[in-house]
Automatic annotation (TrEMBL):
Residues 1-226 form the ABC transporter domain. This is ABC transporter ATP-binding protein. Belongs to the ABC transporter superfamily. Drug exporter-1 (DrugE1) (TC 3.A.1.105) family. Keywords: Antibiotic resistance, ATP-binding, Cell membrane, Membrane, Nucleotide-binding, Translocase, Transport. GO terms for molecular function: ATP binding; ATP hydrolysis activity. InterPro entries: AAA+_ATPase (IPR003593), ABC_transporter-like_ATP-bd (IPR003439), ABC_transporter_ATP-binding (IPR050763), DrrA (IPR005894), P-loop_NTPase (IPR027417). It is a peripheral membrane protein. GO terms for biological process: daunorubicin transport; doxorubicin transport; response to antibiotic. The keyword Transferase does not apply. One of its GO terms (cellular component) is plasma membrane. It is found in: Cell membrane.
């Protein structure tokens, strides 16, 4: 798929295959083209060129057929804050041609199933962030879709609400739904997805299982020594031990991307022999943010909080 808005190339030949009954995670930073891909696949916009087939239907030639078998929980779903959750769902159900009785029954069933029955008669305007996301998810399920698109389903949620959404997605997949999920969140794809595509500037720059992507990067050894005085000797030992050039930042030393990390006791005894006093040491599995950093030189997701230097008086 290729999509251009004026001079902006939102998608630059994105090519994806998503096996049925799996979760595919599309991971990328802001503006990478994730929502554009979802919008094309959900028939909300057309590709400038290229072709996409969803559940056997061509999105450009048979959009009405595609719409019958998909659900979409978009980044900007429209709910009426002045109506209750149940009322909103009934209206959306009728718009999806479930009929008035069918819409009512389905709304009740889904509210119950996703733990929102108690809040169904409250105004959506009074819902918490987690409840809102859940009702968006419910709205995308009114027609029991074969293919579900979730555009950043948990962005901005706290940990318990995210866990609830993840559990709901797992249940849907167990029941036979195919899910394409976009996210800036590494943990989310590791928790849910069988396959991950890393997207940057409209292109797929890496693809595989979360484990495969992590294996491309290797492990990290993290060492914190007592003070900066201990850094040079510790670094020399670590370099000899791993064959890699360590990096130091204050009293913290990192050896990035070792294919085979030496056993922890060996690292400890070597560092001990070097005379460096160790405060902390660890062998870290890489996260998908390391994958992204290695491939694009950029981090994914919210920037780390930066410590502001104290004003000097
Ligand atoms: N309707 C539009 N008109 C013009 N430019 C657009 C439009 N929609 C998207 N774009 C541009 O296309 C690029 C991809 O946007 P898209 O919304 O797909 O990114 P995204 O990966 O979903 O980002 P985010 O993580 O912020 O949601 C961006 O540069 C964006 O500004
Ligand atoms: Mg988006």
């Amino acid at each position: 798929m290729r999509k251009q808005y004026g001079d902006v190339v939102a998608l630059d030949g994105l090519d994806l295959v998503v096996p049925s009954r799996t979760v595919y995670g599309l991971l990328g930073p802001k503006g990478a083209g994730k929502s554009t891909a979802v919008r094309i696949l959900a028939t909300l916009t057309r590709p400038s060129s290229g072709r996409a087939v969803v559940a056997g239907f061509d999105v450009a030639r048979n959009p009405a057929d595609v719409r019958k078998v998909i659900g979409l929980a978009g980044q900007d779903a429209s709910f009426d804050d002045g109506l209750t959750g149940r009322e909103n769902l009934r209206i959306l159900g009728r718009l999806s041609r479930l009929g008035s009785r069918g819409a009512r029954r389905r709304a009740d069933e889904l509210l119950e199933r996703f733990g929102l029955a108690h809040a169904g008669d409250r105004l959506v305007g009074t819902y918490s962030g987690g409840m809102r996301r859940r009702i968006h998810l419910i709205a995308s399920l009114l027609r029991a879709p074969a293919v579900l698109f979730l555009d950043e389903p948990t962005t901005g949620l706290d940990a318990p609400s995210r866990a609830e959404i993840w559990e709901s997605v797992r249940r849907l997949v167990a029941d036979g739904t195919t899910v394409l999920l976009t996210t800036p969140c590494l943990e989310e794809v590791e928790r849910l997805a069988t396959a991950v595509g890393v997207i940057d500037r409209g292109q797929l720059i890496a693809e595989g299982s979360p484990a495969q992507l992590k294996a491309q990067i290797g492990r990290h050894i993290d060492v914190v020594v007592e003070s900066a005085d201990h850094v040079p000797s510790a670094m020399a030992r670590l370099e000899r031990l791993t064959g890699r050039c360590p990096e130091a930042d204050g009293s913290r030393i990192v050896v990035a991307a070792v294919d085979q990390a030496p056993a922890l006791p060996l690292i400890v005894s070597e560092l001990d022999a070097s005379g460096a006093v160790i405060r902390n040491i660890g062998i870290r599995e890489p996260g998908l943010d390391d994958v992204f950093l290695t491939m694009t030189g950029q981090t994914v997701g919210p920037a780390q909080p930066v410590e502001t230097p104290e004003a000097v008086s």
